[in-house]
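Notes to self, Sigma-70 family RNA polymerase sigma factor:
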Amino acid sequence: MVKDLPSYYFFLSQQYPDLSREEERELIEKAKKNNYQAFSKLILSHLKLVVKIAQKYRSKNLSLDDLIGEGITGLMEAIHKFDEKKNARLATYAAKRIKYRIREAIFNEAIFHFSPKIQKLAKKIKKEPPEMLFQPEQLAKKFKVPLSEVKQAINFLNLARFNLEGEETSEENPILVNETRETQFEKVNIKKIVNECLSQLTERERLVIKKVFGLPPYKEPESLTKIGKDLGLSRERVRQIRNEALKKLRRFLNKRLNLISFFL
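result:
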C-alpha cells in the first residue's frame, strides 16, 4: 500500500514515465559511454520496478528502504551488462539482477541471527538424505539436540537455498540445492566470515553482537534487557548499539561481495 512505502523512493518512482524501446536503447548506449545523465535517467525510469520487487521481499531485519537500495544496485549492474542489440527490454533483464541483490542482502543480514552452533548443525543435516528434512524429530534424536535447534538449522538451510537458487521455499519443498551450489556452499567458511565482520566493530559493539546472537565465548543468545543490565545500559541503548553494529556488518559484507554502493 502507498502509505507503507518510503515516501522519498515512492515519490521519485512516480515522477519518471516509462521509456519507449527507442528511448531506452539510446540511453543505454550513452550510459555505457559513461554518460551520467543517461545512466541516471535509466535508473529513475525503472525505479518503479525496483520498488515493486522490493515490496515482495519484506524482511523483519531490513527496512524497505534498504531493500530498494540493494535493488538499485542490481539495476545498475543490469544496465552495464545489458545487450541492447537483443530483442528484449531492460526491465525484463534487470528484474533478475534486482531480485538477486535483494535476496543476497537478506541472506547476509539473516546469517547473524543463527549462532555458530546452529550453522554447524545445519552442515550436518545437509549431508542427510533429503527425505530426512521432513522428519525433524528423527534428526533431533540422531544428533541428540533439541527439536527447536533442528528447526532453526533447517531454516538456515532454507535461507541458503533461497539466496543461492533464487527460489522461495515452502513446507512442501523445504530445501532443494543442486550439486554445484551445494559444493559451493560447503566451501563457505562461515566462522572466518563472521570473525572478519566482527573485526569491523568497536569493542562494545562486538560484545553486544556476541551476546545477542550467542557467539563464542557465549553459548546462548541473551536478551537485550540482560545485556543492558550487565553493561549498565538501558534496553533501548543496547538495541541502538545492536542495530548500528548490524548496519556496519551489512556494509562490510556488501563491500566484501563487491557490491556497488549507490545513493540517490
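- The chain has a mean pLDDT of 77.
- The two ends are 22 Å apart (CA to CA).
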